[in-house]
Amino acid sequence: MQESAPSKPFRQPAFGVGTVAVVGGLIAAFAVPALADDYWLSSIIIPTVIMGLAGIGLNLLMGYTGLVSIGSAAFMSIGAFSTYNLLLRAPFLPLPVVLIFAGLIAAIAGVIFGLPSLRIKGFYLGASTLGAQFLFEWLFTNFSWFSNDSQSLTISAPRLQILDYDLQSATGRYYLVIATTVLLIALAFAIVKSRVGREWMAIRDMDVAASVIGIRVARRKLLSFGISSFFLGIAGALWAYGYLGTADAHAFNLDKSFQILFIVIIGGVATIFGNFLGAAFIVLTPILLDRLSLIIDLSFLGDQGALANLQHIIFGTIIIVLLIKEPDGLSSLGRRGVEALRSRARSSN
Amino acid sequence: MSLLTKTMSLAAAAAMAVTLLSSASFAEDGTGQQLYPLFTYRTGPYAPSFIPFGAGNIDYLRYINEVEGGVDGVKILVQECETAYTIERGIECYERYKNGYNGALTAAIYPHSSGLDVALTDKARIDKIPIVSPGGGQNIATDGRVFPYQYPLVFDYWSEAQIIVDYIAQQAGGYDKLKGLKIATLYHDSGYGRDTIEPLGILSKKYGFEDIQIPVPHPGEQQQTQWQQIRRANADWVFLRGWGVMTPVAIKTAARVGFPANRIIGDIWSGSEDDARPAGAAANGYLAVSVFPPGTDYGILKTLKADILDKGKSDLKDNSKFGTVYYNYGVIEAITFVEALRTGHKKFGNRPLTAAEGQWALEHLDIDQKRIAELGAEGLISPLKTSIDNHKGETIAAKIIQWNGQSWDTRTDWIKADASLFADVIKAKAAAYAKEKGIEPRVATN
């Protein structure tokens, strides 16, 4: 299930292919704005990438360490509001530094709300993270200091630039999002393959056994909460500035937390790239269904209201069918598909 | 094998998705038509408000298209896009339709959500697309020099606060009688609800009434403490700035603590049939501010009834919603769109307008008393005149309506807010925004 490192002998040839794939992927990622128009960038690619990043954040916690969280959006909101206040109140800080600080602030909050995980497990832990969800939504709505006393309690980036390069256009925002995401994906892989990642998985699989072999379970759990929230915090900042343009506390409500949870479940637990498949599914399916209704004449349904509600039903049905047919998520389907193709090619040779 | 089929079907689905998303050319050709992207929320918690509101919009545009043959001969292509009242879906709709659709041009976008209006501010400035939010825009965007693409037409909550105080002064017998009165504002604890704290503070200093501000946390199903506080403070009037379930609960709780309904004045979003009716008998005599006066006695409403409703062409499924606050709001909004197009046609010719032309038109709207009479909208709308300096309209006015247990009665004529009172504060706020964002305010040239 997990993307653990293959043992040595196989690694050598795979390394070359992997490098080519990574380099190719990077080139493709940076060439996207040349091919895609504003619509694709602003309303399809950017939200999918950011939600995928948030999925990685939760997956590190849930998939690799086995801890449940239903407060992911709260940590996103901390990242967004921290970024806003840092940009506003410490204007000398460059954007990348601000993003890192925002991530760290979210990480601290994550560690604090992770403390109950040392004593409680499973769904009970969910309740603690749910507390974070409600606390921060309340905090950012009720203390207008966080939004610089803005009338509507919304925050919007005072300036979105790196070294005088203006990032406000769709292309600029895309580069900000994709560059941050690529770095964080690399970080996620590094963590997962490191000793920390292996210890997380040991805790996930059996925490008593993990502590017996000398893993400091408590520390590792808190670290997992911290790193997960770091990712989520940065994803939140990107969601607010790279995608929405503005945000208020309600942009990070319980619905968003559930969306992230679904991304992890649909994309595949304990994967990195699977999160992007899950995000694509969650972000794009409603849009696709809406566009489909433009093409197919569904007027026999009566009215537009019935049609709009039907889309929700279809969306729900697809999720259920998908989870029954592919309980390990889209990434596992994709991986097995590739392996099947490969073995066919080998056998035909 | 089944695995391979699965993978293949996944790939096929992905390919289909890409085709679906990139092509818009399946539907009819829109060349020569004006696009009206109708942002809907037929699903989600606010759908009950949208359904009559959307129908008012659609019915008026159908009437223009089918009976009047378009706006100066230009047909309007209504293209719905469901946002479910979420900002994410709204942004997708904006991106989908900002550059037109199949040859039909976009002149302006009505986001139908205050949150989305705010979220689109930066994007619209970069894309140069006018964003119009009648009754729900950002008050600081009144300053069109800083916000060239935002149009908070028709109304704002600061003017509303002023209108409330004017009405209370009328009832008390003059502004000098306001001294010593206690006006409590019971507000939905959100950005929207808090918006009247500042203007009421200014007004209370000016007239000497006591300003009591009491928040109600969302959604507001429990208000016993707040109303007891109002009772203890011995308030003379309550300005109820509710939203959703908060309004009927407020009216019922007021009755329970013995506060008279005819001393409560609801906000424009607390003044629909669906706000008063659920409160039952407790709502008898309840007052509300109305910019979208309900009723079916207006000329244009009679025309719509004859040409659209009675011919079965209405978007309404429940005809009892005809002439309600939200339906009439939809009609009024559609009128602002159509009149903006007419204004543009006079300058650019009778053809679909581009966004740049739409912006010019929205900045030069002048719906005067004469035009209102021609539209058959006397009593339904008050004059609306915009300029580069003023994207809201020069005179902001509202009526006070009263619930009689079944429907709303109109109590007053248009009460006009004194625009000069807050103009400097708003300008200063806009200037601060411009500075924070690094925007160079435009200079009015024509």
UniProtKB/TrEMBL annotation, chain B:
<dbReference type="Pfam" id="PF13458">
    <property type="entry name" value="Peripla_BP_6"/>
</dbReference>
<keyword id="KW-0732">Signal</keyword>
<comment type="similarity">
    <text>Belongs to the leucine-binding protein family.</text>
</comment>
<feature type="domain" description="Leucine-binding protein">
    <location>
        <begin position="39"/>
        <end position="342"/>
    </location>
</feature>
<dbReference type="InterPro" id="IPR028082">
    <property type="entry name" value="Peripla_BP_I"/>
</dbReference>
<feature type="signal peptide">
    <location>
        <begin position="1"/>
        <end position="27"/>
    </location>
</feature>
<protein>
    <submittedName>
        <fullName>ABC transporter substrate-binding protein</fullName>
    </submittedName>
</protein>
<dbReference type="InterPro" id="IPR028081">
    <property type="entry name" value="Leu-bd"/>
</dbReference>
